[in-house]
Amino acid sequence: MLPRRDFLAFSAAIAVARRAFAADAHPIAEYDQQGIHRTGSAVDRASADWLAGRVRGLGLTASLDPFRVNRVDPGLCFLEGPDRRIEGLPMFDGSFTDATGITGRIGLAGSDAPIGLIEVVPNNEAGFLLELRRSGKHRAIVAVTKGAGSGLSPVNAANFAHPYGPPVLLVAREEAEWLRSFATPGQTARLVAQVARTEVDAFNVTAVRKGSNAKLAPVVVMTPRSGWWNCASERGGGIFCWLEVMRAVTEPARDVIFVASSGHELGHFGLDQFIHGHGEIIKEAHAWIHFGANIGAATGPAGTMQFSDEAMRSLAMREVAATGMKMNQRPLGQTPAGEAGNIHRGGGKYISLVGGNELFHSPADRWPQAVNTVALQKLAGAFAVIAQNLSRAD
Prior knowledge:
The protein is built from eleven helices and 14 strands. By secondary structure, it is of the alpha/beta class. The chain folds into two domains: 4-70 and 199-390, 3-Layer(aba) Sandwich (Aminopeptidase), CATH 3.40.630.10; 71-198, 3-Layer(bba) Sandwich (Glucose Oxidase, domain 1), CATH 3.50.30.30. Helix 9 crosses helix 11.
C-alpha cells in the first residue's frame, strides 16, 4: 500500500494526466504536466499508467512490468556555514550521513580539506567527479552543478546498483561564487546528506506489435521515461518518437517490441531489468532503435546519431538526410551515450539518436519553450520509416 503522501501525489498526477489526455494535448505537454519524473515516485507510476493508455489508444496491449527499487528519499540535505545554509540534493549512488552530518574545513577539490568543493556539468558522472569520489581525499564533497539553466541540474547516479565513495551534495549553480569565497580560506562547514530508503516497485511500459513471421528475430524500440525534473525536452522527445513509430509500424514481418524504461537516472536500472528478463535479447534482436535524451530540444548543439555498424549507419542516415536535418555522427566502434551503450557492450546491433540541450537536467526544461516541435516531427517521421524498413523480412 502506498504511504499517504505518495498516494496523494499519485492521485494528483493521474488527474493531471487524465485531463490532458481528454483534451487530446500533445504527448509532451501531458508528460510535462505530470510533475517530477524520478524513478519509483508517485508521478513515475502515474506517468506509466498514462503512457500505457497512450499505447492502448494505438491498438496495442500495454504491460506494466515491475522491478524493485530501493528508492532514495532525501531528507535534511544542506551545507551550512557560520551565517548561511545552502540546500542541495545528494548523489544517489554515494554514501549518506545522519542528521549530524560531517563537520570540517572546506577546500578546493584535491586539497587536504575534509570537505572538497568541485564544479561539475550535469553529465559528469564519468568525469573528474568520479575520480575524486574514488580517491578518498575527502570525507564529503560539495558539487556545484553548472547546467546552462538556473537552479540545480543533478548528475545521474550511474552506479546506483553499486554505490561508492563519500557523500556528495549537489547544489545550484548560483551558489558557486559564495562557495569559492568560503572555501578559499578553508572555513569550517557542516555537510548533511540524510535520506530515507523505501522499497518500491517501478515500472517499464512494454508492448509488442506482432509480426507475420514469428521465426524472424524481433526489432526492439526503446526510450527512457524517467528523470530528475519534468524533463519536457530531455525525455519527452524520445517518448514522442517512440509513440510515432508505434503508430507507423502496423503490419511488420518481425515482432516489434516497445520498451519505455524507468530508472534512467539510476544507471539505466529499468533497462537492465528488462534485458535480464529476456535472455539473450541484446544479440538475438535483429536491431535496436534507441531514442535517447534531448531529441527535438529547442536549445543546444545538433543531435548525434550512433550506430553499431555500417549497415545500420547507411539505413539511418539516408532517411534522416532526407529531412534536411544536420546531424553529427559518433564514430563506429565508439561506445554510445545513453541506453544504447548497454546494447553496444552486449554486442547488439543498433541505431541511436540523442540530442544536445542547454537545459539538460534543468528544472527549466518545460513545455512548450524547451521543445522544437518542427524538428521533432521530422525526426519522428524519419525513424518511422527506419523502423518500417527494419521490421521487414529482408
